[in-house]
Amino acid sequence: xxxxxxxxxxxxxxxxxxxxxxxxxxxxxxxxxxxxxxxxxxxxxxxxxxxxxxxxxxxxxxxxxxxxxxxxxxxxxxxxxxxxxxxxxxxxxxxxxxxxxxxxxxxxxxxxxxxxxxxxxxxxxxxxxxxxxxxxxxxxxxxxxxxxxxxxxxxxxxxxxxxxxxxxxxxxxxxxxxxxxxxxxxxxxxxxxxxxxxxxxxxxxxxxxxxxxxxxxxxxxxxxxx
Length: 226
What we know:
Elements: H1 6-15, H2 26-29, E1 34-37, E2 44-47, E3 52-53, E4 61-65, E5 68-73, E6 76-81, E7 84-88, E8 95-96, E9 104-108, E10 111-116, E11 119-124, E12 129-133, E13 148-149, E14 161-163, H3 169-187, H4 200-220, E15 223-225
Antiparallel strand pairs: 1-2, 3-7, 4-5, 5-6, 6-7, 8-12, 9-10, 9-13, 10-11, 11-12, 14-15
Helix pairs in contact: 3-4
């Protein structure tokens, strides 16, 4: 019996559905050009804008906006270009259901923003999601306005959330947002609104109550909050 070559075996397995060609894995389709986003002490690595991939990650989220279609995954945005997809800056105004799995909460002018990969998001209640917005004025020069905290949605001060049960980044983002909304409903304090949406004399205590409620919700869902 003639010896089968490695190339023939791979082609046979692919045709039979027993193997996946390398180009279908987005990690193999991405040019290895990345940068670390250190703004606001975010310190996460992302593919450079302009990098072209041959396939989307399997759980990438399609998003339509302004008559165009985009894809969103892990804080990185893509648009179709030729046979592949190019990494882009998201259009200002587009809304997504969940925040990137790793983000930094940034307070500016009494408003809470969420930052990741050179992009600012603001919760839009009417759209029931997070909207890409222009950077807040003076955000990089006003140290007081640019106070940051890597936190659950709503910006629990100095809170860090760790998954105990291997939750995916997408599940983490969903859980953080849902616990944020639950804490707002329980306490009446919404850190995405100026002053938390409560009387100034109540803001301090309400913020603490919000942080405790959000942490309790996340811990019940299998996270450690520190």
